[in-house]
Every structure is written in C-alpha cells, then in structure tokens.
C-alpha cells in the first residue's frame, strides 16, 4: 500500500480545489484516515492478479490504496466532477501506477460492467449499498470476492445467518451468490463529513448458487416470505402460490413446516420451495 495516502488536510484541499460540496443524496462521506484505508486494502486481500471494481471512488482515498496492491482498478463514479478529477489525482500522486486505473462515469446500479473484475472493493454510498452489491454480483460473474464498507446495521443484515434477529431479504439474497461475513467495525470519525452512523466491513466470497430453481423464481419466494414478517410461511406465500393450500403443498414438498417463518429459512431451502410450486 502506497505511503502517500490522502489524510484530512489533503482531502479538504482537494475538495476545495474541485469545489466539491459533499451531498447526502449521493452518500458522499470521504475517507481521510490512511490507517483505515490500509486496513481495508489488507482485509480485501487483493493482489497483482486481481482487477478491482471500486464503486464510488470519490476523491480517490481508497483508489490510491488499491492501486498499490491490485493489478488494475476499474472505478465507477456517478458524480461527473469526481469522475473527471480522479485520473489527475492518481497521476499526481502515483504516476507510475496511473495506467492501472480505468474510470467510468456511470451509475453503478445501471452500469453494464464488462466481465473482468475479480474483486469488489468499495466504501459504498449507503442509501444504495444493498442494491449495488446485488446488481454487481448478478451482472459481473467474474467477481470472486468482495470487501465493502456499509452502514453497521446493513453489515449486520448482509451477514446474518438464518434464525438471527437481523436475517431478512438482504441476507437471503446475498447468500444466493456468496458466503458473507462481517470483517470489523469502522468508527464515523474516519470520514469527512462525519456521517451520523457507524460503519462496518463485510467480506464476501463467491460460491455456487443453489440448484433446482432460478434466481428470479427463488427471489420471488424470498420477497413474499419477508413481505409480511410475522406471518407463517403458509400465509405469507399464499399470494405467490395461488392460495394457502398450494403454498402448504410447496412447503411440505420442500421439507419446511408450513407454520415456519421466513426468518428461519436459508437460501437453498427458499430455492427448494420455489422448485416445488405447483
Ligand atoms: N471511495 C471514497 C472514499 O472512501 O472516500 C468515497 C466513498 S462515498 C461513501 C460514496 C461515493 O459513491 C461518492 O463518491 C458518490 O459520489 C458515489 N456514488 C453514489 N451513488 C453512486 C452510484 N449509484 N454509482 C456510482 N457511484 C455512486
């Protein structure tokens, strides 16, 4: 990891020079703590063989750290000023690594990323963190690992196992693609401006998806199962199955008690329920 990472003074100077006023709607909280950047790069375990996909490079804090460790970085930024300024920031500070960087000015929720990136590493814009992660895991099949920073509560939800209090739609859908674990807490003081939530790191490792039903079919069951949290699956899946009796048949055929609740069901079992729809 390079030594000349962006600290508080550099971040403020860069923002002033570019006339950047961080906006909440785009989740613009910039890292200004080199230790946190080094920690993220280390925890991501990226090496020269990796092509990193970074969502929301912002002023470049994490990008500079990643360029020292990875073979290449593809950075997708929605803000035209930030996307435009990034190549110059990198050329100034790490001229010998500048050709490793590709910047795409695009919305990560809609962008079509060419296959190639092997690792997703990002300090994500918090309001769209879960949809961005799911969209990229779905559309960039070359991604093998991920290390993302998200709001602490979202980290809990993404990594929650079935049966735990925070298990829900994000946990079940992320588990379709990956084994997901929490990789540590990050205090709010490492950002400028300081957000009003704490953050957490989430590690993802790609695995084979469940078999038997497609992703669309399985996610339809997941959405129905959690739409009415307190209901039994028999009741919650009635609309999806075309009646409570048919829901019960699919559940029994999948080996799930009709009185169970979605909170206890893992993604492979959701796929099995989907596969047994009459
Ligand atoms: N990586 C930088 C850092 O750690 O300092 C910035 C992180 S900041 C939390 C999130 C960044 O994502 C901002 O630069 C913001 O403009 C960008 N962003 C927000 N929504 C986006 C989207 N839909 N697609 C791509 N970038 C987005």
Automatic annotation (TrEMBL):
<feature type="binding site">
    <location>
        <position position="56"/>
    </location>
    <ligand>
        <name>S-adenosyl-L-methionine</name>
    </ligand>
</feature>
<feature type="binding site">
    <location>
        <position position="123"/>
    </location>
    <ligand>
        <name>S-adenosyl-L-methionine</name>
    </ligand>
</feature>
<protein>
    <recommendedName>
        <fullName>Ribosomal RNA small subunit methyltransferase A</fullName>
        <ecNumber>2.1.1.182</ecNumber>
    </recommendedName>
</protein>
<feature type="binding site">
    <location>
        <position position="77"/>
    </location>
    <ligand>
        <name>S-adenosyl-L-methionine</name>
    </ligand>
</feature>
<dbReference type="GO" id="GO:0052908">
    <property type="term" value="F:16S rRNA (adenine(1518)-N(6)/adenine(1519)-N(6))-dimethyltransferase activity"/>
</dbReference>
<keyword id="KW-0489">Methyltransferase</keyword>
<dbReference type="InterPro" id="IPR023165">
    <property type="entry name" value="rRNA_Ade_diMease-like_C"/>
</dbReference>
<keyword id="KW-0949">S-adenosyl-L-methionine</keyword>
<dbReference type="InterPro" id="IPR001737">
    <property type="entry name" value="KsgA/Erm"/>
</dbReference>
<dbReference type="GO" id="GO:0005829">
    <property type="term" value="C:cytosol"/>
</dbReference>
<keyword id="KW-0808">Transferase</keyword>
<feature type="binding site">
    <location>
        <position position="31"/>
    </location>
    <ligand>
        <name>S-adenosyl-L-methionine</name>
    </ligand>
</feature>
<dbReference type="InterPro" id="IPR020596">
    <property type="entry name" value="rRNA_Ade_Mease_Trfase_CS"/>
</dbReference>
<feature type="domain" description="Ribosomal RNA adenine methylase transferase N-terminal">
    <location>
        <begin position="36"/>
        <end position="208"/>
    </location>
</feature>
<keyword id="KW-0694">RNA-binding</keyword>
<comment type="function">
    <text>Specifically dimethylates two adjacent adenosines (A1518 and A1519) in the loop of a conserved hairpin near the 3'-end of 16S rRNA in the 30S particle. May play a critical role in biogenesis of 30S subunits.</text>
</comment>
<feature type="binding site">
    <location>
        <position position="29"/>
    </location>
    <ligand>
        <name>S-adenosyl-L-methionine</name>
    </ligand>
</feature>
<dbReference type="Pfam" id="PF00398">
    <property type="entry name" value="RrnaAD"/>
</dbReference>
<comment type="similarity">
    <text>Belongs to the class I-like SAM-binding methyltransferase superfamily. rRNA adenine N(6)-methyltransferase family. RsmA subfamily.</text>
</comment>
<feature type="binding site">
    <location>
        <position position="107"/>
    </location>
    <ligand>
        <name>S-adenosyl-L-methionine</name>
    </ligand>
</feature>
<dbReference type="InterPro" id="IPR020598">
    <property type="entry name" value="rRNA_Ade_methylase_Trfase_N"/>
</dbReference>
<dbReference type="GO" id="GO:0003723">
    <property type="term" value="F:RNA binding"/>
</dbReference>
<dbReference type="InterPro" id="IPR029063">
    <property type="entry name" value="SAM-dependent_MTases_sf"/>
</dbReference>
<dbReference type="InterPro" id="IPR011530">
    <property type="entry name" value="rRNA_adenine_dimethylase"/>
</dbReference>
<keyword id="KW-0698">rRNA processing</keyword>
<keyword id="KW-0963">Cytoplasm</keyword>
């Amino acid at each position: 990891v390079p030594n000349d990472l962006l600290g508080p003074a550099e971040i403020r100077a860069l923002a002033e020079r570019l006339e950047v006023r961080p906006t909440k709607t785009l989740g613009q909280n910039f890292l200004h703590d080199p230790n946190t950047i080094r920690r993220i790069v280390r925890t991501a375990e990226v090496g020269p063989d990796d092509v990193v996909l970074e969502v929301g490079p912002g002023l470049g804090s994490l990008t500079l750290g990643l360029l020292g460790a990875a073979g290449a970085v593809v950075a997708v930024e929605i803000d035209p000023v930030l996307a435009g300024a990034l190549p110059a920031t990198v050329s100034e500070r790490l001229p010998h690594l500048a050709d490793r960087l590709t910047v795409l000015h695009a919305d990560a929720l809609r962008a079509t990323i060419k296959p190639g990136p092997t690792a997703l590493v990002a300090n994500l814009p918090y309001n769209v963190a879960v949809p961005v992660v799911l969209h990229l895991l779905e559309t960039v099949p070359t991604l093998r690992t991920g290390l993302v920073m998200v709001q602490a509560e979202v980290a809990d939800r993404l990594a929650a196992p079935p049966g735990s209090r925070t298990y829900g739609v994000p946990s079940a859908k992320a588990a379709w693609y990956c084994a997901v674990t929490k990789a540590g807490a990050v205090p709010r003081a490492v950002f400028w401006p300081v957000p009003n939530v704490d953050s957490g790191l989430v590690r993802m490792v790609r695995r084979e998806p469940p078999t038997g039903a497609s992703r669309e079919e399985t996610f339809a069951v997941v959405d129905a199962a959690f739409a009415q949290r307190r209901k039994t699956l028999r009741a919650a899946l009635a609309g999806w199955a075309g009646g409570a009796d048919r829901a019960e048949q699919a559940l029994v055929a999948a080996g799930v008690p009709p009185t169970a609740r979605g909170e206890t069901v893992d993604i492979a079992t959701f796929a099995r329920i989907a596969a047994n729809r009459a």
